[in-house]
Write a structure and sequence with these properties.
GMP Synthetase, Chain A, domain 3; three-stranded mixed β-sheet; N-terminal domain of TfIIb; 2 domains; alpha+beta; 138 residues; three-stranded antiparallel β-sheet; OsmC/Ohrsf
């Protein structure tokens, strides 16, 4: 896997993935940015959300659960001093579908957190990561 980050101006950067996709990152005005894109640490949090959601959906599909929607709401706290690593991350899953089995949803989230989600496992080296979920009927 490869990626490239090119400086644009100020603190704005263009991140390019090895698969050919781009994303603008920038800082807040107080840090010299123009607020043109997500902050790099926000990208890490979004990446974790995407990684764990991918796992959960894959596991639930294999378990023949009729999922029609899935949202992961993430909330993180960072250290007050440098390096300002994530110290706590909470992932709240909102899984919508027909006749979803709560035990299967809980198991899928646990498997992602403990075995499959590379991003969660890496971030878990510095942060306490917690999860919960709610099920909504489609």
């Amino acid at each position: 896997m490869k990626a490239r980050v090119k400086w644009i101006e100020g603190v704005a950067m263009l991140g390019e993935s090895g698969s050919g996709h781009g994303i603008v990152m920038d800082g807040a005005p107080e840090s010299g940015g123009r607020n043109l894109g997500a902050r790099p640490m926000e990208m890490l949090l979004i990446g974790m959300g995407g990684c764990t959601q991918f796992d959960v959906l894959t596991i639930l599909r294999k378990a023949r659960q009729a999922v029609t929607d899935c949202v992961v709401e993430l909330e993180a706290e960072r250290s007050a001093t440098d390096p300002k690593v994530f110290t706590n991350i909470h992932a709240h899953f909102i899984v919508t579908g027909r006749d979803l089995d709560p035990r299967r949803v809980e198991k899928a989230i646990g498997l992602s957190a403990e075995k499959y989600c590379s991003a969660s496992i890496m971030l878990g080296a510095t942060a306490t990561i917690t999860h919960d979920f709610e099920i909504r009927d489609a």
